[in-house]
Amino acid sequence: MTLDSPHRLTLTPIAQTRTQSRWRFEAMRAHSAPRLIFIARGQGRITVAGLTAGYGANNLIYVPARVMHGLEVGPTVFGQMLTIPAAMASDWPDAPVHLRLRDVPVQKQLAGHLDALERELSSDLPGHDRAALYQLGLLSIFFDRQMQARPAEAVDRRADTAAARLVAAYTDLIERDFRSAQGVAAYAAQLGVTPTHLTRCCKATCGKSALRLLNDRVLHEARVMLRDSKTPVNRIAAGLGFGSAAYFTRAFQSRTGLTPSAFRSREGGAPGFEARSLTNP
């Protein structure tokens, strides 16, 4: 079951508010369409493919489709997250990119692109949907030019280490198989390493154990399904590889402090993000 649409162009604000839970950004997740994250102010950490890095104001972070990531959002952080339709993913890089835009003229140029895109997404004028997609195309050209202008910082060199490559491969396997109820030992065996070595590498690259990364991904999917669907709890449990609804409920409550039903009631009644979006024809 896929709850995020790979066909929608969406611009969503990033901010911590009293009505929005931190898991909406911070929990490990992946999407079927790419994401472009712009941090306008504040600072924190982001983990992409098992590699954690700091971010600050005027940072632009691209996350390809099906790449696990989580973004820490503190009370001073504000930004925007752009969902790129899968049909336009070929205009964007194949690997994660983290750009730090230090030049004021470049920052203003980016702000202009995002403002123009938001205007079209908010408009009801004829052709606004095509105009928004054209604005997205211009933004992709801007992004490509910034990558070419600063190639040394576009890709985190730490990703070339053996530990980072192993953890990236592990997160890829998690994203593919997290519904299968496999444990860390099974993933480690597929990667040709011991669970101890895998956990050591995970802690070195992102400060989390291999089990924590796996559990975070499963828990995020459970939260999304509880929030965005009416699927019965026992079917959610079965779909995520739990042997019974009771076991799923105990595991969920131990991590969140709420039963699945209580979580659904709380999150279903809370205001959502005011995202601007359109469906790619």
Automatic annotation (TrEMBL):
Keyword DNA-binding: yes
Domain HTH araC/xylS-type: 168-266
Annotated PROSITE patterns: HTH_ARAC_FAMILY_2
Domain of life: Bacteria
SMART domains (alphabetical): HTH_ARAC
GO molecular function, one term: DNA-binding transcription factor activity
Keyword field: Activator, DNA-binding, Transcription, Transcription regulation
Keyword set includes Iron-sulfur: no
Database matches in SUPFAM superfamilies: Homeodomain-like (SSF46689), Regulatory protein AraC (SSF51215)
Pfam family, one: HTH_18
Gene3D superfamilies in the cross-refs: Homeodomain-like
This protein's name: AraC family transcriptional regulator
